[in-house]
Design brief:
By secondary structure, the protein is of the alpha/beta class. The protein has four helices and five strands, in the order E-H-E-H-E-H-E-E-H. The chain is elongated and about 65 Å long.
């Protein structure tokens, strides 16, 4: 498997700095990137993470918004990968709907929580490798199919502007 890419989404990047240090030291060769909620979807596309560590709330107290839910929905729709919610307020998640997926885990921020995240990342590693293998297989299969149909498409559609749509 290539270098493990972990994207951390948090409204307070300093709050996950010790977690990044722990992951980097313990996983050897992993690449961690911290982003805020505002650029998370763009970074999911660009960084193509194997795993996302997601803060659930943006803000503090009564003004906090469950922006993690929007990011979670984006990941499930466009970039399926293990998702670890790392939040100070796990009670803000809706049990069942938010938590019943085997690729979804919740860990409360606090004392020794970095070790709990690290343990969960280790549990996810075989699944990450399997997802990476499946992605490669799908890419190879799609490449073969496109290679087979391209001559027929180009031969039947004279208009070069219409070919990309087909």
């Amino acid at each position: 498997m290539p270098t493990l890419r972990i994207l951390l989404v948090d409204d307070e990047p300093d709050s996950v700095a010790s977690l990044v240090a722990e992951l980097s030291a313990s996983l050897g060769g992993c690449e961690c990137k911290i982003v805020t909620f505002s650029n998370a979807t763009q970074q999911i596309e660009e960084f193509d993470p194997h795993l996302v560590v997601l803060d659930w709330l943006q803000g503090i107290g009564a003004d906090a918004a469950t922006d993690g839910e929007t990011i979670r929905d984006y990941i499930w729709k466009y970039k399926f990968c293990p998702l670890l919610v790392y939040t100070a307020a796990p009670e803000s998640l809706i049990r069942g709907r938010d938590t019943d997926d085997p690729f979804f885990s919740v860990i409360q921020k606090g004392a020794n929580s970095e070790q709990a995240v690290l343990a969960r990342v280790h549990e996810f590693k075989p699944h990450i490798a399997a997802l990476e293998d499946a992605t490669k297989e799908i890419r190879v299969t799609m490449t073969g199919a496109l290679r087979e149909i391209a001559p027929a498409v180009f031969g039947r559609i004279a208009d070069s502007a219409g070919r990309p749509d087909v």
